[in-house]
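tool_call: predict_structure(chain=1)
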Amino acid sequence: MTNVNQFIFTRTAPKKKIEVVNGLSESELLAVNPDTITRIVKETGYSYKKRSQNKELRISRERRTGNNWNSEFEYVSIYKKKLYVGLYVQYGDCDTDTTQSEDYNTFFRRENYEGQIKGVDYRGNTKYYYYTYDISDKAKCVKSILLEYIYSKYKEKFQADGNA
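tool_result:
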């Protein structure tokens, strides 16, 4: 079993890191702790203001994953020293969507995550729309964070190799 919390920050070739991350089991992916994710966001995340400690690591389209139904994992961020995840959710008809922000620890509990959006139907009545992430969906989300970190951190190296 690979300790990803330490391995991801070692001086290993980026291609080797990608191979290891792609080969991780679901339990190994879910063993990644919030401190590791915090460090990843601090190192490769984007800060909206020059001196802001709030950062966001957006997952690029090719590495995004979701619940294979109505939601997609968009980003992980640090806001006021707390970790959050951003979930794109499509609900109602195909024209209605939003991005929900959820506490990292709440989302990554060892149980299914069930989120809800309060919306209004065509008659003006309040209606709740639901989306669910099971354990395997969450493992895929962690994998996308790790891969985004590697591709962001070693961007110049991949461009020099012609594998951008």
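agent: The longest helix spans residues 135-153. Proceeding to next step.
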